[in-house]
């Protein structure tokens, strides 16, 4: 399988009045063709900043890609000019956001919005653009596309609007689709339908997907692999099976405990105590130390470099690291 994206040692900072925030602190991951990678974590963990960096949508200033590289299909796109990046956005890499209303123009018909991208990037006739728009609307499951094409966004329900946004993102046939919390604004039944739709689209088009979400329940359905982010770092990555059935990082374990399950009463969910560290001055050791029930002295002092547990499973936790035994002061495990 072909590697479509490789992100290496990505660091993103934001200048604020209070100082510099290190929002993404050395993130590595890759994506294969036709694969779905979910990036999961609490709000503020850096997952949206990571995906916005790939699209080069970090407002600069105050934001900055301070280090690292983003390679798309073998081409380093980290430092492309805005002009070059515009050719990539929508055509090679497309993005959809949480709130469909902000992505749609209320004053244009659905048909005009859908064909706009096509006409901009491809030299085709209005008739051909309309034909492709209708096909795309069918693909995303919009009934009566001929009628719907003439309507405005406010005439669509929330779920139908999100289908339209997905159609717009896919109309130029991108190879990579980044979806940032695409179902968060929708009710549960519609959420499930949209997630099914992603699967169907991938089957039909072979598009690779990066799904950004705070909700592990959402990724259970469609992810092939899962990267768990915490305090600007990927602390565990693995296949869906490895993450759901054999999570090794105490934070991942905590996230899974807080996923609502049918057999557990809502009241008995176990949230993770405490809050993530301040990213103005991130800890030098494991960022989860203050919340971790297994923290040892070494955790606070030295960042646990990722340990490779299988060809797909990696975790940054001293509990999984043989070398921890040789680090001094390790005996002082907390109770
Ligand atoms: Fe907990 Fe230490 Fe592992 Fe961090 S490195 S998750 S503090 S055991
Ligand atoms: Mg976000």
Automatic annotation (TrEMBL):
Topological category with respect to the lipid bilayer: Peripheral membrane protein
GO CC entries: plasma membrane
SMART domains per the UniProt record, alphabetical: AAA (SM00382)
Keywords: ATP-binding, Cell membrane, Membrane, Nucleotide-binding, Transport
Any Gene Ontology biological process: peptide transport
GO MF term list: ATP binding; ATP hydrolysis activity
Domain of life: Bacteria
Compartment list: Cell membrane
Residues of the ABC transporter domain: 7-256
Pfam families (UniProt xref): ABC_tran, oligo_HPY
Family statement drawn from the similarity comment of this UniProt entry: Belongs to the ABC transporter superfamily.
Designated name of the protein: Dipeptide transport system ATP-binding protein
Organism annotation: Sediminibacillus albus
